[in-house]
Amino acid sequence: MRMLLIHSDYLEYEVKDKALKNPEPISEEQKKGRLDEVLAVFMSVEKVDETNPDEIVEKAIVEIKDVASQVKADRIFVYPFAHLSSELAKPDVALRVLQKIEERLKEEGFEVKRAPFGYYKAFRLSCKGHPLAELSRTIVPSGEAVSREERNIALEKEEELKSYWYVLTPEGELVEVEKFDFTGHENLRKFANYEISKNRIADREPPHVRLMLEHELVDYEPGSDGGNLRYYPKGRLIKGLLEQYVTEKVIEYGAMEVETPIMYDFEHPALEKYLNRFPARQYVVKSGDKKFFLRFAACFGQFLIKKDATISYRNLPLRMYELTRYSFRREKSGELSGLRRLRAFTMPDMHTVARDLKQAMDEFKKQYKLSMEVLRGVGLTPDDYEVAIRFTEDFWKENRDFIVELAKIIGKPVLIEMWKQRFFYFILKFEFNFVDNLDKAAALSTVQIDVENAERFGITYYNEEGKEEHPLILHCSPSGAIERVMYAILEKQAKLQAKGTKPAFPLWLSPIQARVVPVSEEVMDYALYVAGKLEGARIRVDVDDTGDRLNKKIRKAEKEWIPYVIVVGRNEKEQGTVTVRRRSDGRQVEMQLEDLIKEIRSQVEGFPYRPRPLPLLLSRRPKFRG
User: Fold this and answer.
1) Which of 76, 397, 441, 553 is such that its CA lies 20 to 30 A from the CA of 148?
2) What sequence ranges are listed for the domain Aminoacyl-transfer RNA synthetases class-II family profile (predicted)?
3) Domain 507-620, classified CATH 3.40.50.300, yes or no
């Protein structure tokens, strides 16, 4: 069973039509319903629940009572909601479970209303919005034997794990999240709500989807599995530049680049153990009689390389890197959302071998700063993302000053998730999380200190005495998935657009950095000359040779977020100048072509370059959508 629990000012519904051939019989009075000051419990009864429905009912009652006590609710609205799962129970079983839950809640003293089962319903809900207002729960019958493809042990344990949430200030004050004053930190409040609720379902289309389609960057691929996308030329250019940029930054940091397979044997002893400790949903492929899983990170291949390597203490810290195109996670269909959450994604993945905790923590702090630098290069500052740091209570007691220093480096309060005991393979983890226009969060950069997998995979190094020891391993993605970076860039521009600010890509990522607009056919030769000079200076330029009027050409360039629009007419041709409209400040100036080249080059210096992804002339370009 899956449940989404929302503490609400009210929930009301109205039956619209039958969703099942034989829905639950209802009266006219039951076609509408409302409760105020209520804990709304949206429920999907799943196929696995059929093995022991009574146990599921009792487990559900325990969870609902626990949440109701936390939010001080004495009214419960039980609402059938099939969209939480793709593996639904038979309708008769589901209805019996829901009826029994309603009955048991009444026995516990709650005022209860249940929405009818088997109908399409319109509903309105007003969520209260505090950190405990949105929570999700997954309930599985005990002793149920299902395959790894259906149920991942680590995922279940992660859902059961009890978290304690705090906010840590740069001054070192640790405040329980419900007691923290979020005034001036609205984005952090949204992030805390999202993390604590664990509701990952995308109920609306985020604004970046409209932008990625309008700009012909990325599109859905109906011929593939959900969460596998197609990239048009401009989108491929942006993605390729980001891949190149992050890779260069990591190699500059000191990592050695490798390449490893995308599929691995389910029965490999070290991999099988690791799968049960790393929450992920695998794609499974068969080769003959053997089963393989598609990787969801570069850990497997890099660990196996390190296992076979001879490593000395003199080699440490040893950093190894791969840009995985692609990594795979079989995410739930309801969680797939544009570029934010995918089933096939590109992950820059670095693993660092460290001799001890002191060296590992030193690397952790350096990689924390590296991640800030990488995001700054793509136009994301600490104002654009929120920090989560996760660890056990013992780690906090022993390393408090280190954690506080991380908050000081970022210069603002950070969200803390603390556990009484360690379940995961790591003892410390941070993420930089982007909060989008729908108040959903997505992790970008991350670093983890892994204390288990060196021993599990047989990775050792030789110390000063020539004896073998197991090191610690740091997992680092300094940017997060490349697709997520694109999502964050587009979502940030959607926020700016909503505030009346002109959206724009960072200049080095703009598919077209300058557009030459001739005012008439008679100056086309000069327009091509200007474009040739710019292209020779490694600036992506095109020419609007269409028959549109000048104003329409300029509006078209504005809509495409072209950073520099260069208008050339008879006057510019005679004087050898250009008239430039800058998107960044809206100014129009006449200048020498050499000065324009210097201005653009100064802003893209230090970033990778790729040539124009489309034909020079607009009239030669296909339209990919619509």
Assistant:
1) 441
2) 231-503
3) no
